[in-house]
Give the backbone structure.
Amino acid sequence: MPRWKKILYALLVTAALVAGGLFGWSFLHRPDTCAEGVERIDGECVGVNGEGYDFGTREIGAVARAIAQENKRIEKDPHVTVAMMLPLHSGNEALNRQIRSDLQGAYLGQLQANEGEGEPPKIRLVLANPGREYGHQAPVVDTLLRMARSPGDRLRAVTGFNLSLDATTAAVDRLTAHQVPVLASRITGDGIANEEGLDAVAKPKFPGLARIIPTNHEVARALAAFTGGLDREDRRTVLVHDTREDSYNESLAKAFDSIEEKGPAGPAEMSFTSPAIDEAGSTGNQFTQIANNICSSEADTVYFAGRTVHLRLFALKLAEVGCGKRHYTIISGSDAASLRQYMSEENWEKLRGTDGEAKVTVQYAAPAHPQAWDTELTAWRKEWRERHHREPTGKELPQYLAEPKAALDRLRGLIDTTRRAGTDLGTPPSLEDSRTMLVYDGMVTIGTALHQVQNGPAEKVPGLEEVGQEWVRLNAQHRVAGTSGLICLTGGGNPYDKPVAVVELDPGRKGEGTLKYVGLGWPAGGPQPKNCVIPSRTP
């Protein structure tokens, strides 16, 4: 064979080997894709998708498809993208049902925001899964930042955020640092909030962050101001708190510790350590010891700073230990809104005791409750009639009750409309745990901001900074009537004097226990002012 042919063959063989090697390397190292925009990382499907993917959680499949259908409907209209960011998969069925409630609220809020003609921009909703406990939030935030810069995606807000964790804080910090507006609808941790005051507002910790739910500090103020039987001068309290690193637990413990008690001093605080948000671990053993120590004291009220999984177990252990015929009230924060979903018939029996009398009841400050507005308006009307001897007119009804009642009626009407249209949401939305209500309110608030900041041609969508600056204008005449209460945002993007609903989980005398609305607590000590005009915070 001529020398030149040998050289040519050698080069061809080498090229083939190199090409094969590169193909093999590429094949072995290609991303393991779960769906469009979603990769498998450490066994979790992490990423962003608005095409109906369920992230491996069958409970959310139907509502994810409904969102995709609405996205398809408005794709030819002037629109922007809003991302719903929260962990979308759990091995726990109760948690998966909670995720479904969140997404049902997001979908219904999207429908409400997209209602009407000639009101651009419409909202295209995408789901962003950062993995369990936001463990893979960094690559998801990378994607969202690219979408914010993309002329095709036009991401203008990120909402969701259901857990107050360090990883959540990191995600919010990075998004807002790049001018991506964030509206937190369900996080109560004090660490993910801007401070108030001239200097703080001028240089906010999270520029472009808004919240529609009170912080744990505000919740504690509301509970302290609540007069529905919590402010007895003869009660003795004890704080039980989780020491695991968790912003929700930490800020709730500090908030409870700051409440000034009128009654005699109770025992010193007691702590436990849980392994994770949704794992019991050895907490049952720890709770047995804590319950025995509480029995040895004269405490009758327990402030519990911990997650729902552990709250349920603590309540059962406190009932199991006994303490004679004493009755205990456990008071906790907004995470307890899902407690009833974790209770079994056997659990109710334990809380009830052998004589049928409740050994333990749980009260918590829910961010919303569907019975609140009807109950409060009924009581207000009764008092009005007794004073004025006539029925009040519509204009005489207090805005802080009437407007949220009207908003809740709209949501219920929307739920009924989707049902009659045959839209499958997996299961009929339940408003009892407040999740659907809160997330719905968040989407409506985003829609309000987008519509108010929009100007010029319909095709010219608002910029990121414009949307982020609009949050602080949503008060007074531009207040948002939420199903959870009037949303009046301060200069720091925080809800002013947003009420909490004090709810009681009562085991009753037989059968399944009841979830009873008790009353409203106001962080400022009283209802929001007329027209939600926020007063000066300076003397």
